[in-house]
What we know:
nucleotide-binding, alpha/beta, single chain, ABC transporter transmembrane region fold, Rossmann fold, 61% helix
Amino acid sequence: MGANDESVFDVYRDRVDRPLARLFRVYGRPEVEWFALGMAANVVARVASLLPPLILGIAIDSIFVDTEPFTLPVVPDAWLPATQSGQFWFSAAIIAGAFLTTAVFTWIYGTAANVFAHRVMHAVRTDSFERMQRLDMPFFDDKQTGEVMSVLNNDASNLEVFLDDALQNSSRLGVMLVGIAAVLFYLNAQLAFVTLIAIPAMVLFTVWFMRAVEPIYVAQRASVGDLNTRLENSLGGIQLVKTASTEEYETERVRRASREYFDRTMDVIKLNYVYRPGMELLAGVAFAATFVVGGIWLFSGAPGPFTGELTVGTFVTFLLMTQRFVTPLAEVSNIIDQYENAKASSERVFGLMDIPVRITDAPDAVALEEPEGRVEYRHVDFAYPENALAAAEEEDSGERVLHDVDFEAEAGDTVALVGPTGAGKSTLLKLLLRLYDVNRGEIRVDGHDVRELTLSSLRGATGYVGQDAYLFDGSVADNVRYGNFDASERRVREAAEAAEADEFIRDLPEGYDTRIGERGVKLSGGQQQRLSIARTILQDPEILILDEATSDVDTETERLIQESLDRLTAERTTFAIAHRLSTVKGADTILVIEDGRITERGTHEELLSEGGTYATLWGVQAGEVEMVPDSGSSED
Ligand SMILES: Nc1ncnc2c1ncn2[C@@H]1O[C@H](COP(=O)(O)OP(=O)(O)OP(=O)(O)O)[C@@H](O)[C@H]1O
């Protein structure tokens, strides 16, 4: 789980090629009009913002000091006013117009850049969630969901900041530098060399900084991921933490992860503290050099190798312009910071998106139509992949959990699976839902290999009632309706009645509209289970999987649940895992699973008369059996 283990994330992230280019290609292209509008408005705004210092310099020379004729670049002299006061007001109008233009186009630019950034990110977030939830189960088994949350949250917002701020700032910087250089060279190419002499030094300094900071950023980001995983894991297991009273231990673990993040962040900050003042200093050198050379030029003529004249106005324009590029250049470290973040974040986003999904519809998959519910397992072998990476790479690395499992269930049959814990009962049924694929052999439903069926039709025909009945934030009715979203109120009610849930639901403060979850009522384990049974009744599947559905409840609730289950299983092919043998006595077939193999099979009577494992287990539980009230499921 540490940063050094090669997780499936690391591997696929490392394989991402030029992530920011891909971001623009895949997600930027559909929004290219916004991008283009933003960039165009940016050029206009920046060019307009260069006008006031230029006009000021010209006005000084031709109006205030009056040593030069009043001329403007580009504009023909014939258009210009002839009198000094006319020229003054004309200059004032241009300066006012320039400020107005800058304001209006900065607004257009900001809006377009924002719309671009947020549209792109909306698409990225939705897409990465869509990809993520389709990932194969081993990915989720690895308990790395903290990483995923951090991709969906941190990385998405890093990209947002980059697309929004950094892109704005860097394009502003680019236009400013080119614009300022152009104006300075136009006014006095020799002095422009002096002013811009610091630029190569700045570039070199920046290259050094980028090289130095890159590995530090990588370490910082890894530590954020670890911290998130740590938080998510510790909170996810809160019940265990409390019952084991390991709060201090968990706090210590979080403290260590947080400390690591703190230290890595400080490394970044330290380097930034060198870079920023360094850039300011270089910009200061440029300013001072311009001031000294220009100053000498003004009061004692062209110094050293320089030739020609320098006017006061040009000198002022030079100093104002030099001042202009100090601030944006000092922003370069922010831009680099955001750029590095965005590069890493987009690598993570695309790394996540690139993890291959193995369990998906085959290209020629067919829908299971009018399913009957006949199920066959043919010589099935299965091993869990060692981890998500092995699953993604289709490595056959894990230990074998099922060996040559071979049986069949006719439509409507009830098959009970019993056996010691860890024997492979749940695994066997997960294969039927295609949460994992078999390594050898095949599983057939109505004669079709499950790998040839569409996942939605296979899973739509298969209902699952498990040990933890997950309920979503929402009303009781919403939860019963989950997956069958257009079921009418009447059908929801009928399903709840069949699941023996109607009565307790009516007793809730707002009946079927009562909210469950964070801001609503909390339900007991038995109530949750009955809601989940109601949901399955509404789904009306042909095949039903019951995974020890009646655990953790009192006998009265168990009786109610058992009754609702009996109603549910009556017409359907049912696979039931149960540790209490009393609940499986009436099954058409009982399979005893030991160590991933079917070791006994037959009806209750057959297995008893065989005198094997089942008979022994039955003997052990017989005392209990007498005490369990008649569940209505037994047929003898
Ligand atoms: N997601 C998983 N990834 C890797 N191995 C797993 C996973 N789930 C279960 N196993 C392993 O597979 C074996 C079979 O587990 P399974 O849950 O199928 O047993 P079970 O018979 O249903 O047990 P129980 O009655 O305790 O639920 C166990 O050795 C377990 O460690």
